[in-house]
Design a protein that fits this description.
The chain has 357 residues and is α/β, with parallel strands linked by helices. The chain has helices at 7-12, 29-37, 51-64, 83-99, 119-128, 142-150, 162-170, 201-211, 225-233, 243-246, 255-261, 286-291, 304-317, 341-354; strands at residues 18-20, 42-45, 69-74, 132-136, 154-159, 175-179, 185-186, 216-219, 238-241, 269-272, 280-283.
């Protein structure tokens, strides 16, 4: 089978084996539409909004293109509140707020609702029928999966190891995103408190290609056509790129995030729980430095911890300090390019065609 040609691409209606990662808070309807219109698969992360907000985002993409696109949901276990841990966390971070002349929140809340308990989101998706719905942090119930599938929606889920991939396969999902350790943003692990096997993208991709029957989408550290070609040569049906799109003009990344990505900071990424409460790869900054000095047990559950993380970032931005932001980025960050999303897709296509076979 020639590179870039697979049954999965035909099923979705994609011309190119390229998926733009959802990146909640960074991807936009304009980005997803531009990517999809160029022949790849654009995506939007809607885990940080409610059903009404997600519907608006879907309609905004459809106002721009009739091409298929992906809507991504968070399927984490709902947070367990612990007032003692949360108050201790606020106290630990208080000096950073005071340095910025700000006051931390008195208490923290669960700012995102998991899709596993969001009936309104399910109802909206069944009504709007995006071409693809994908899941991160786990899976919804089997009945939810069936409702989406019965609506004609193609289902995709993230795995970071073979155990997760086999569970995805057993639930009738259509494809697996193989998220390697190199990937930026949140780890898609189903159980974040278990030991992470830290499998790299290429090893994980090949493992899932051999050990499952589902199409595999390689994700993590892939930034150009050569990287896409390498993933396809290992048997992947497509490659998913996230960090590569942060610098696009349609990205919602703020100025500080863009400047950091274009600086020496791109050479240094670390995994931290401190920002959100779940392990995530970020450009090394003031927040990750803070997180390096604490134990995972000290951080409140996701997304309760993120409530404080966002407040600290807002306080920093008000004083021109962007180092407390969630500057998610993968290990391929030094290869980032800054251009419109459609131009990036065209560039990736040329690079893929030119890659040695």
């Amino acid at each position: 089978m020639a590179r870039g040609v697979s049954a999965f691409l035909g099923q979705v209606g994609m011309r190119l084996p390229i998926v733009q990662a959802p990146m909640a808070g960074i991807s936009s309807p304009a980005m997803a539409a531009a990517v999809s219109a160029a022949g790849a698969l654009g995506s939007m992360g809607v885990g940080a909004v409610d059903a009404a907000g997600a519907r608006e985002m879907i309609e905004a993409v459809r106002d721009r293109t009739g091409a298929p696109f992906n809507v991504n949901l968070f399927c984490h276990k709902p947070a367990t509140a612990n007032a003692d841990i949360e108050q201790a966390w606020i106290a630990r971070v208080r000096p950073q707020f005071e340095m910025l002349g700000a006051v931390p929140p008195a208490g923290l809340s669960e700012i995102y609702r998991s899709f596993v308990v969001d009936g309104a989101m399910l109802k909206m998706l069944v009504e709007t029928k995006p071409a693809v719905v994908s899941f991160h942090f786990g899976l919804p119930t089997y009945m939810t999966l069936r409702a989406l599938s019965d609506a004609g929606i193609i289902l995709v889920a993230t795995a970071t190891n073979l155990r997760e991939a086999r569970l995805i396969e057993s639930q009738g999902v259509n494809a697996i995103v193989a998220q390697g350790w190199e990937a930026g943003g949140h780890r898609g692990t189903f159980e974040p408190d278990l030991v992470d096997e830290e499998l790299g993208t290429m090893a994980l991709t090949r493992l899932l290609v051999r050990e499952t029957r589902l199409p595999v989408i390689a994700a993590g550290g892939i930034m150009d056509g050569a990287g896409i070609a390498a993933a396809l040569d290992l048997g992947a049906a497509a490659a998913q790129l996230g960090t590569a799109f942060i610098g696009c003009e349609e990205s919602l990344a703020d100025d500080g995030y863009r400047l950091a990505l274009a600086s020496d900071a791109a050479q240094h990424t670390v995994i931290t729980r401190a920002i959100s409460g779940r392990p995530a790869r970020c450009l090394a900054n003031r927040f990750t430095a803070l997180g390096s000095m604490i134990s995972a047990m000290s951080v409140p559950d996701y997304p309760i911890a993120y409530d404080l993380g966002k407040a600290l970032h807002a306080a920093g931005k008000a004083h021109g300090e962007y180092g407390f932001g969630a500057q998610w980025a993968g290990q391929g960050a030094p290869l980032a390019r800054f251009m419109p999303a459609a131009n990036l897709i065209e560039t990736l296509e040329r690079e893929l065609e030119a890659a040695p076979r």
